[in-house]
Amino acid sequence: MNREALLQLLEEVRTGRVNPEEAAERVGLYPFAESGEGFCLDHQRELRRGFPEVVMAEGKTDRAVEEIVARMATSVPLFLVSRLKESLGRQLCESYAQAVYHPVARMLSFGEPPVGSEGIAIVSAGCADRAVALEAEVTLRWMGERAELIEDVGVAGLHRLMSRLPDLRRARVLIVVAGMEGALPSVIAGLVNVPVIAVPTSVGYGSSFQGLSALLGMLNSCSAGITVVNIDNGFGAAYAARLMVRTCDRGPAS
Amino acid sequence: MNREALLQLLEEVRTGRVNPEEAAERVGLYPFAESGEGFCLDHQRELRRGFPEVVMAEGKTDRAVEEIVARMATSVPLFLVSRLKESLGRQLCESYAQAVYHPVARMLSFGEPPVGSEGIAIVSAGCADRAVALEAEVTLRWMGERAELIEDVGVAGLHRLMSRLPDLRRARVLIVVAGMEGALPSVIAGLVNVPVIAVPTSVGYGSSFQGLSALLGMLNSCSAGITVVNIDNGFGAAYAARLMVRTCDRGPAS
Amino acid sequence: MNREALLQLLEEVRTGRVNPEEAAERVGLYPFAESGEGFCLDHQRELRRGFPEVVMAEGKTDRAVEEIVARMATSVPLFLVSRLKESLGRQLCESYAQAVYHPVARMLSFGEPPVGSEGIAIVSAGCADRAVALEAEVTLRWMGERAELIEDVGVAGLHRLMSRLPDLRRARVLIVVAGMEGALPSVIAGLVNVPVIAVPTSVGYGSSFQGLSALLGMLNSCSAGITVVNIDNGFGAAYAARLMVRTCDRGPAS
Amino acid sequence: MNREALLQLLEEVRTGRVNPEEAAERVGLYPFAESGEGFCLDHQRELRRGFPEVVMAEGKTDRAVEEIVARMATSVPLFLVSRLKESLGRQLCESYAQAVYHPVARMLSFGEPPVGSEGIAIVSAGCADRAVALEAEVTLRWMGERAELIEDVGVAGLHRLMSRLPDLRRARVLIVVAGMEGALPSVIAGLVNVPVIAVPTSVGYGSSFQGLSALLGMLNSCSAGITVVNIDNGFGAAYAARLMVRTCDRGPAS
Amino acid sequence: MNREALLQLLEEVRTGRVNPEEAAERVGLYPFAESGEGFCLDHQRELRRGFPEVVMAEGKTDRAVEEIVARMATSVPLFLVSRLKESLGRQLCESYAQAVYHPVARMLSFGEPPVGSEGIAIVSAGCADRAVALEAEVTLRWMGERAELIEDVGVAGLHRLMSRLPDLRRARVLIVVAGMEGALPSVIAGLVNVPVIAVPTSVGYGSSFQGLSALLGMLNSCSAGITVVNIDNGFGAAYAARLMVRTCDRGPAS
Amino acid sequence: MNREALLQLLEEVRTGRVNPEEAAERVGLYPFAESGEGFCLDHQRELRRGFPEVVMAEGKTDRAVEEIVARMATSVPLFLVSRLKESLGRQLCESYAQAVYHPVARMLSFGEPPVGSEGIAIVSAGCADRAVALEAEVTLRWMGERAELIEDVGVAGLHRLMSRLPDLRRARVLIVVAGMEGALPSVIAGLVNVPVIAVPTSVGYGSSFQGLSALLGMLNSCSAGITVVNIDNGFGAAYAARLMVRTCDRGPAS
Amino acid sequence: MNREALLQLLEEVRTGRVNPEEAAERVGLYPFAESGEGFCLDHQRELRRGFPEVVMAEGKTDRAVEEIVARMATSVPLFLVSRLKESLGRQLCESYAQAVYHPVARMLSFGEPPVGSEGIAIVSAGCADRAVALEAEVTLRWMGERAELIEDVGVAGLHRLMSRLPDLRRARVLIVVAGMEGALPSVIAGLVNVPVIAVPTSVGYGSSFQGLSALLGMLNSCSAGITVVNIDNGFGAAYAARLMVRTCDRGPAS
Amino acid sequence: MNREALLQLLEEVRTGRVNPEEAAERVGLYPFAESGEGFCLDHQRELRRGFPEVVMAEGKTDRAVEEIVARMATSVPLFLVSRLKESLGRQLCESYAQAVYHPVARMLSFGEPPVGSEGIAIVSAGCADRAVALEAEVTLRWMGERAELIEDVGVAGLHRLMSRLPDLRRARVLIVVAGMEGALPSVIAGLVNVPVIAVPTSVGYGSSFQGLSALLGMLNSCSAGITVVNIDNGFGAAYAARLMVRTCDRGPAS
What we know:
Eight copies of one chain form a homooctamer. By secondary structure, chain A is of the alpha/beta class. In chain A, 39% of the residues lie in helices and 17% in strands. The first copy, chain A, has eleven helices and nine strands. In chain A, strands 6-5-7-8-9 form a five-stranded parallel β-sheet. A four-stranded mixed β-sheet of chain A has the order 1-2-4-3, with helices on both faces. In chain A, helix 6 packs across helix 11 (234-246). The interface between G and H is medium-sized, with 23 and 29 residues.
């Protein structure tokens, strides 16, 4: 629920078209304990944090996801479901006209985002990191950002990266996605002077330990200016990147 | 490249035997291999990344640190030494008038930074996280930022945090420092809409495993908008925060 | 076998209606080694610990579970099977009229528990923690407690938790279930003055390492008054909570 | 600050003997940011949680500990410093007449606790677990509980434990302290029907990994009714035990 | 190939009935490199170690297992295949009359072992540890030992264990199998004065980490006289136990 | 750069509009971003490193693998796909006449390698290590080396290894593949004076932790002359071995 | 207290020279709770387990060790203190004439053991494993066994080991001590047919992780017949070895 | 003992100047068990492996090191002691004229190596990796190789590395030393076509976990041609590098 919707609702309360109990529920103060699936939508999140809630499907039963989507579809114009398996994603697309399923990113987006600004680039080390890079890309698009995608430029073939240096330097924030040894953020952060958000991926085998090697590599980077998110967390990187470019909208710091 | 070699090179530029482009490359390219201590100062870093190099003293011999400082003191107006033990820090202060040692942060700063802008707040969970919070604070001051310090507001006493909410909301970027379970960034990120840089600390005992518990907690936060740096890496958090507030200086994104 | 049943059995031995061998087996001193499935029911547990045995199905073959249930169904009026897969649970319900299968909690309960007292609340951080929260809830109900369920109030949206504070403060013991960074018990324990039993869950991905991040977070909580059980161990938390509220029935300590 | 002290202070404000600014500081709403050591005493904790704050000395500088103690000594009648090294503890005892240092438990207690009730027993597996057992014992005494200490009854010599069974069964809550394989809580919990708080210790060597083996053993106990605290956390176990026996003071649950 | 068979073969070489090349292959000096599946049977093992080779099926392709069995079936009167999935085990039983598949132990045995001596007992903590206990039992039977099986006597119900104490004390070597916290060997070793071989199992969930908790518990036992084998390694425990009781057959030590 | 773009560029070189240096850079610099699957073939790799790129199929979608193979099949005479599942491998063999699928090694090779030199031996500890040994063998054959395969000579039966000592000593570089405790490289390196490349495998169970035990064993070898690659990385070992025997082709070192 | 001493004491009780209370204390039924240092000597251990208690000094305060030794010196003719630092060991030797301190093994032995039998050999991989090998050797001597010491025969130089093969084969039980990759037990167990007790040591650096690499290597040995004790646990290995050779004294198994 | 010395000794045996017992000892077939410090010099190593033994001082007592050095000084013309603390190194230099102590590398070398060939370069990422780089350099010099040292060229300042590319490409084998994220080998291996031996160092803090991050990074490199040694193992890297350049001396492979 955004500000306009809230004002309109309150106006309807004032004029008696909506009674306070119903309004309270729609505003989202009270959890949907009665839903029978144990969730509690946070309708006020957009007001508080700037973006509506994102639902992580993984770990929830199908029925819980369906019920949450049904609730949100009637009250939130723009939302996102992440880590959603393809079969359920396809099924929900059939039920909701405004839903789009992104199979590689494994996300379901609802609603038409505003025309996006630019300033964020997503860089990936290898083709196998693609799902995570696209999770970031879909998230940003849904938040009104248009990110440039620079893929498969890992450090094993440095010339591929070097040929994209002008693109890297044009961005205001960089999301760098890499598995295996996770060295790409270190190299890139040494070449630019903007924040680098490093996303380790679970790409690799053996002693990569499902992304641990990339995660540790990024946390211990010898280049300054890097911050790190969880393994495979393309969504989190995108969300943070969006906040970073937004800091400027707040006017000059005193 | 030592001073004589530099002077000779510049003389050759003056007399036209070497053109400026070639000279510039040679100035920044060859390491001080002749120093006998195996380091290679990166004089071009300021041009490339926006700030001069920071030297991490830990892991280097005293003699190496002394020699590096001697080199930098004659060529770099503003630099920083981190993770420097007190005895050596005090000794270097006696040798260099422009040096200041910060005992809790364990840093040595050289030179007078410009008057700082504001916009960054450093929040710490407990009194024992102070060294890391101050490492961030000293770094920011040296980079021309004046950070607000909000200390000892951990989640065990939520009212302490709540009473500082207006201060938190005034910042454009938040650095949140916490050890033990590292829950503070999760709580704060749910209350603001700016980037939160989480710094896990090694504060704790037993199964905190020298900061692992806080690190994992922060990486797995259920709040979006958080990025994480290495355990006890106050410097890295400050550096990244500075880059984030600087993105605005680059003009509006297209 | 409870006290009355034991007395009645011994009376039957005295009067010769039951011979000692049969009685001994029913009392449960000797293991059912002859069962061919290698288990040894602990029929005396209720006398000793206050509650009959609970059977964990996971790791046992289907045939072993069936045989154990068959044994208990004829000798124990009230028992519980945990971590039981749905197919076998449904099948056992068809064989035993007194059995009820709880699909989200993955438990099978036998028998009608006494009308429950109140005093325990189960709090969960997110919808995906539901299975563990319900495992605790089913266990408590079966032990004669009626627990209040407060779901999806994780720290990312603190206002959801705050709106339930009166409910939290009414309880005598709190079970707090959370995955990911596991921060919820820390926040709650700072707001109440009753024991908090923290249950880490395997909800999360990447560096949550199947619940390790939540477990470490809870063990290292900066709030006092928290004790922790194994990852996903809703049953254990419920059992311990029941013991805690029962300490009062023992009369004032000397 | 307890309730009476608060009322008295407010009366003094009303009558003008104390001005509001001074009162506010004493009430503890505002952190002592001006202290120069970065701490923020939580004077309201007693009102909120039932006991005043406990200060963990480990990780804090000597100067910070001294300053915190100085503040608390003038405003809190009863408090505790934990994990305090002997030299500083002895020194503080010389400065404050009401301070007592407990060298094995490594704690400093201030003030005369009320005469204690009974109902908690502390059991330790071996002589080397003594420091942790005494940390629990000092904490409980300071909270107005008188705990029975049953030491060196580890599972390697079961008859030692068995000879103390009547003592174990008399308690309403048991704190069980063990290092190495941490098996003692499992054995005890199978013999009693009260809550068992298991405290793993770092006693051991090699693959005990500083208490990890005991911690994992306790978390995976096959006996129900056990909850666990951090490695070597005798304080936390005592605090939780005190809350458990206090649940009875709240009257019968509805 | 045992000693008699070897002597007979060499006699046949001497008399010309077998040519040296064929004999060499049967003796097993040269690996079956030509088999196309890359294995190298160790036909001399019985001479050297006292028992023929045991083949671990896990990690080998079905075709490799089939070929190895085919080779051994023609040259080795008595052998064992471990960790063999049921489908392949059943199929091999149909091909070889002398093969028996043990479904819970997941082993395939070939040949009729000699009548066994006694002196080893296998003790298990819970019903879910059965597969590992039976792996040990099948191995021992195949090696000519008749082991007593004492199941489901875990420490949570100490009276079950105590009632079997005479059986435990009759054995010359004890194999103790336990998952979860793995406390059973500690308790038993304190009650007997014979060697205890502890076998951790992967029974458990959450922080049992697939048997790590039991393994660490056993390695850090406070009782002396315990040695440990790999997680779920019932075969290894049986093999070692057999060697231990055999030391006596070597006559009195000098 | 696709075929048309390449032809157009070469035309521009021919007509003098683009000079050769610029063209060379453009040929190798721009990724196939237009492919829609996010990869970036490194056509210059053969020039730079001596061998064309190898594609790791694991972690890539089927569609991405198909598209990459299609691209390479038209432009690279000799390439390799590793960690490719059998179904996709078989399917690609039907589409491309020059493709061969190696089912145990799980590799797809394209093109006829030159007649190979000799000098590398691949030694494996057990039959279950075969897949990794063959991955190395296929890689070497494809790089123009003919490796000798010495299988199933693990340290449990030292005589098997000893009988192959002459073969081991004939090699110029040894690749030693072992799972479980990974002791074979230590023993072999003590017997030869050539480089030993140790390849830990994930063969084992329980505390082998998917190859961690073998990896640690090899890294901590008490024999000098061993270097290690990732768990199950037969390809990497072969690649490095090929570089080692090639160092000689560079002529005598100065 | 051994059997004779017990009989003599009981005779004294019968004749009234010793009153029951004093006798009870000396028999050791009741713990020395009054000692003020929290230990509980197990005077009955020799009767129950065959050997008197061994005291591990590590983790105990100096004062506790002194008091325990004082108690035992007056009541136990033969005992051992392990992991005792040199300064305290030397000091105790001055106080007690019957005490001997073994500086490399870090043990203090009291009393004259009986003339030992033979049958156990202790093998070590390297000179740095000596402390652990000697801890085993001192323990065995004190238990009445005379062990042969075969040192510095690690697998890097196999001929050293081979030249000692006859000595290895003469033993009835082998204790094999090794750090780093811990490969020695695997090689030896393949060459003998007696039980091998493997003792991992913390010798090594880097990824040996204080003995973890050796421990995992031994647990995952491809040779059967190996059982493992804790890292650096020479005492435990010796104790178990003694039990193994003693199984023969129990007469033939039925 | 090298070949000439052996021949000379045998000649002396033939002519009766040396008796066989003395010769045997000097040849080194029998271990110096009588030395009282438990070591067993491997005098035949040079004949077998090409270089004499290297003694690792760490983990050995001072007295053991002294005695080993005394033995070797009289029988081996050229040897090396690694990981030797400065005080003992300096003291040994005073006793032996031919000894040289290298304080940063922490090594003691004996004897004058032959004039070295070239072909190996040692590259380090940072100044703090110097000790490990020098350990490799001293080892190589002692083995008759003259290595080029290229220091402080980590990936954070890629231009430093790029300016040394011609030096890197001149080498036949590269040793690359790096701590923290360990990314340097990945970048270098992508630029050259010779073997890269990666040496992780323990340089770093927090989640570098004493070199684990660098180790995992190197094992998971996306560049082929890299093999890895233990953390901080400069010696092992040098030894392996020497074997690699020596493969050429063996003549062309057949």
